[in-house]
Amino acid sequence: MKLAVVSVVLLMVLVAWPVSAGRKDLPGAGGYGGDHDDDDGDDTTSWFPLDNLLSLNYYDKICPNFEKIVDNKVRQWTKTDASLGPALLRLIFHDCGVTGCDASVLLDYEGTERRSPASKTLRGFELIDDIKSELEKSCPGLVSCADILTAASRAATVQLGGPYWPNAYGRRDSKHSYARDVEKVPSGRRDVTALLETFQSYGLNILDLVVLSGAHTIGQAYCGTIQSRLYNFNGTSGTDPSIDPKYADYLRRKCRWATETVSLDAITPAVFDNQYYINLQKNMGVLTTDQELVKDPRTAPLVKAFAEQPPQMFRQQFAVSMAKLVNVGVLTGEDRIGEIRKVCSKSNSGTY
Q1: Domains in the chain, ordered, with CATH?
Q2: pTM across the whole model
Q3: Is 95 one of the annotated binding-site residues?
Q4: Across-strand partners of 222?
């Protein structure tokens, strides 16, 4: 009965998804600058806060090839290194989850988020720099690094087989970044209560928490993040008993060294689907935070619903939640503390 209720709620959420978003849910199917028609009945503007001054058409006139350049660069780089797709998704989670989606994670000097020990496994910086360099040739001084990261994360998701979502643009870049703020990003060892408090501070809800955790349907984790769960759970010198025994044995053999990596989805690691939730039902969550979702009575029904419903339900709701996430704590033209950086790793002021 509880599953039926949750499924109905999820379906009601998805009914609200604009028809135009389904039309764009394919790589290259519209959504690029000058190709957008203001009179096509698109009501995607209703998805964005009315007071953050972002616009779906922000670059249409000043940099009409913005999204096309981003898409092409992401495609070029991920063709050489497929792991960069999931890395870009992780990078935007770490950016938006600290002080908002302001590209503060890209600043690179002593004491920044990027130099924090918690950020040492983040990747994708060189790709963002390459995109910025290309855009400076076409649209000098007009495109922020925050907008680039936002567009690149969507391009990567679509190229991984994930959904398209409409992005509004006009973000400004933060001038500062502090390593101490990285503690705000959810770690792989928090319980659901701590995770939910963090998400609520972003203006997101429990459905967003479960859905965005589903990004772990692709990508990998460093074994160092789960070794305590495998070899010394709660100081017992044993393995977390909540992990499926056969899967735990596999992880122990795979993760003898902290620098090794393991797929977050052991069954379909390269496919953007709902297998992550099916795995959780079988006690095959890699991170503690993953498996906690199926233990907690507030999130378990949602996990069950996504596991048992068609993958498209997860894909569509992921698009909805990502469209919300990338608008967290943005800086705009009215914020004097923001800027459009010339180089994504450096503030224009050059004072650190």
Answers
A1: 20-34+49-185+323-339 (1.10.520.10), 192-321 (1.10.420.10)
A2: 0.84
A3: yes
A4: 261
